[in-house]
Write a structure and sequence with these properties.
The structure is a homodimer.
Chain A lengths: L15 H25 L2 H8 L3 H8 L2 H18 L10 H18 L1 H12 L6 H24 L8 H17 L1 H8 L7 H18 L12 H4 L3
Helix pairs in contact in A: 1-2, 1-4, 1-6, 2-3, 5-8, 5-10, 6-8, 8-10
Chain A binds a DNA duplex through helix 1 and helix 3.
DNA sequence: TGATAAATTGACCAATTGGTCAGGATTAAT
DNA sequence: ATTAATCCTGACCAATTGGTCAATTTATCA
């Protein structure tokens, strides 16, 4: 019915300006939504951040709710695509370490995306609950099944695989969502540094791998007094 | 100057109704702020939640900003008071386990408080930054120093004590802040259960204690095939 | 070049918002 | 009972908000 844009599959070149502006608006919207949540964000603020008049935002995205949906959907896509597929044949230690590193890269490079998502969750996820109990639930079940197989094969110690995944998310995403808290406590007045992220990544990897019996404990200090007397 | 309430230290009985209503409003405000953040919350919504006319809220708290400040300050007080003091002489394993249990109790019983705090942090903590780089920073430094002493004494394995604290917070608070996500994935349609919290608590304690060399690893499965061959 | 579609935007509107206030109702103290 | 303080609240207001629209400009293409 709506003939606003003919189904011209061959040449999507026509919408060059549109693509550009949509991207610009989406980027601005992600930042504003991250800082203020859905209800707290105004289309005027998004327009200013994008350097466009407000009417322009509505021309491209209709309503604020539609714009928000698009932003959130993009983030969900990013989330899912960043999850490398793993198989039973993989090595547990390196697989888990790689995954933690990948998640920390996201926290470092796309903190706004993480914060938009966090905002949504804190408010009870009114707009993405289907995704949580659908795609995401299945993803977790698939992964935890593989972890359980590794445990069954004796490749790692028996742990609660589902909680392991949850807590990896908690530890990695906290560096994006609550970054201000950690930088304030660490005395980093200009925000978290590359080094902060590296140190945190190592700490998380050690925590997880030791929990799974995949990394030896460093010896305690003053073991000297017990092991070799004189 | 303002004679609205004489400094009558002896008998604060006079403000009985005031105390009651303030408490009622604060409770409602905590819930609404948790669900919508500061900018997203309306005084009308708080009034309805409290079962009072809107003008009443302003009668007791002046502006929305003042009310919010009061809510946040109360939560900060709760946070700090829940931190049991620990000393070098304490036992690392039981102290850490107790602390994790205490934080999980807070996540279970006061999730709204945690979510108000999380909202504030996600937005860059505009109203509580002094608290973060002041009281909270000092608290963390004090605690991590004790952990370092334990390490020096050989009572636990050498770990990054500051990140250990950060990650304990991340793992425990995620069960309040992002509870909807975990319940959706776990298939708990009516929200997290008491049992969910118990299981999570055990998982976190195991993770932390193993990381610190304070809890032995359970043996891997199929070790049978190595140890006793028939 | 002319014509059609797409993009732009200032001006505007109805609804919602935080906050005020005057006047009445309760409560507490004498 | 009188009085003063406190409590209560409907009605109101100025500012902000999401969204519309008509008029104009710019891009596209035969």
């Amino acid at each position: 019915m709506s003939t606003s844009n003919e189904e011209n599959n061959d040449q999507p070149i026509q919408g060059r300006i549109r693509k550009e502006n949509e991207l610009r608006i989406l980027k601005a919207a992600e930042k504003v939504f991250a800082d203020n949540g859905f209800r707290g964000s105004t289309t005027a603020a998004i327009a200013e951040e994008a350097g466009l008049p407000k009417a322009n935002i509505h021309y491209y995205f209709g309503t604020k709710a539609e714009l928000y949906r698009t932003v959130v959907d993009d983030i969900v896509k990013l989330w899912l695509s960043s999850f490398r597929e793993i198989t039973m044949e993989d090595d547990p230690a390196s697989t888990l370490a790689d995954y933690i590193r990948a998640k920390m890269e996201l926290s470092k490079n796309r903190p706004e995306a993480s914060r938009v998502f966090a905002n949504e969750l804190i408010r009870g996820a009114p707009r993405i609950k289907p995704y949580l109990s659908g795609e995401l639930k299945e993803w977790v079940e698939r992964k935890s099944k593989i972890l359980d197989t590794w445990i069954e094969q004796g490749k790692m110690a028996p742990v609660d695989s589902t909680r392991l995944i949850f807590h990896i998310w908690a530890m990695t995403q906290t560096w994006a969502d609550f970054g201000v808290q950690w930088s304030a406590i660490l005395g980093e007045d200009d925000g978290l540094t590359e080094e902060n992220f590296d140190t945190a990544t190592d700490a998380i990897i050690s925590t997880v791998l030791r929990n799974c019996g995949l990394m030896p404990l460093p010896p305690r200090k003053t073991d000297r007094s017990i092991m070799s007397s004189d």
